[in-house]
Structure formats: structure tokens, C-alpha cells
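[step 3/7] fold_predict: job queued, chain A
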Amino acid sequence: MNKITSTSNTKVKRLVNLKKKRKARDEEKVFLVEGIRMFREIPPEILREVYVSEAFYKKEQGVIDGLQNGGKEKGALRTAVEVLSDTVFGYVSDTRTPQGILCVARQMEYALPEVTGGERPLVAVLDHLQDPGNLGTIFRAAEGAGVTGIVMDRECVDIYNPKTIRSTMGSVYRMPFCYVEDLPDAVREMKENGILTYAAHLEGRRDYDEEDYRRPCAFLIGNEGNGLTREAAQLADAYIRIPMKGQVESLNAAVAASVLMFEAARQRRKE
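[step 4/7] structure written:
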């Protein structure tokens, strides 16, 4: 078994660069995936490289050899599995307790019409969202609620940030999404195509559960600290609010988005 034992190795340096830098990921159009669950769920067509720790290889050698030879679990891997010493794997990993398997995958690419099209779209529009955990949670909740796509402006946190990828729990593989250069223009295009837009806003006059989301619609979700930009908010067909008890003024962006998306799911399920 050949293994990489030095953190000065060219491949190791590249992996660290991909972990840390959005620019590096975008230039190669790849991203990193860690953990056995994320590996098991990755679409084979986007898998590029696989690295495992020495301990993982020794423990799961039969599984790895089976995959490389066309095992039943996932079909034949199109790339060899490379082994890193446990120390080197810990160096490239983004987690405190690495599971021992890391993949390089091709970035997914969708155009705006793919993300917002369909017979009855339900879209999440994210404006300047900054927290990787929030974005990952929204992806996961969106899949569960039946959202058809997610649109983000370029100021949003990188979906391919390792922390974001991890928090999607695999939903990133299945949820169509795109970044747009001009979010207001994208919202205008959605409106021209018959999609009603609702802004989660503190100035909302109607409670979120008083609207009809059975029609094509989109929820506009703003930055964790500042909410929606004025330009994006002004494009909403309606401002809605989530009523609060106690002294709470608003919810975390991911929680608020989840409440709205699942209300739409509830209404559509009851038809």
C-alpha cells in the first residue's frame, strides 16, 4: 500500500488550498466532501478523487477494494483511492474528528430557468446570507419541504464552503441552485414568469400563514443581521411576518426560511 506521508506533498497542498479558498475551488470547478455518508450519497458522475486515512483503509479495505472493482454498494469508482497517513489526513480535514474519507467532486451547474422553472415552482431566494451553517440548513430544509430551487446573490456565503457542504447533509446533491450576478434582475425575471414573491420582513402586515402559497411562489430571505436589501425587498409582491411571543423580534434566517417553506409544503399537501 502506497501512502502519502508528508504535508509538503503537492496533492496535499492542493487539498488544503481547496479547503480554504473559494477562488481555488471556483478555478478548478470542484469542491471537497468529507464523511462516509456524504461519500455514499455523492452522484458518481461528479466524483473526481477519493482520499482515505490509513486507519480508515485498514478498517474498510474490503469495502474500498469492492468499490474499485465494481462492488454492489456504489458501482465501480472511476478513480483510484489514495491513502494518506492519519497525520496528513488530519491536516487536510476540515473537522476535529475526521471520519477518514474525503472526496474531490465536480461543482454542479444550473441556469436560472432550471432553478425557477417547472409546473409550479417553489423557490427560496437568499440575499447576502453569510453563515455557512444557515445556508446548509436551508438547503436541507428546502429539500424536505419540496422546494424546487434556491437562488442566491454573489454576496451569499459559498455553498461549496466545507462547513456548508457538511451541514447540507447531502441535500446539496439534489437541490437545484444558482448564484446570480444581479439578484433584483433575477427576481424581476421570476415575476415576469408568474412567480409571486413574498418577503419575510419586520414591516409585514399579514401573518405568513394567511397567504396562499399553492401558486408558483418564492420566499425572499435576507441577511442574518440586516435582513433584505432595500432593492430586493421593494420587489416583493407582499411582506409577510412570523408573529412572535415574548420579547423575540425575529428568527434566525434558517429557522424563518424553514417555517415559510414548510407552510407552503403544508398548503400544497392539503390540496
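[step 5/7] annotate
Residues 3-106 form a domain with the 60s Ribosomal Protein L30; Chain: A; fold (CATH 3.30.1330.30).
The chain has twelve helices and twelve strands.
exit 0
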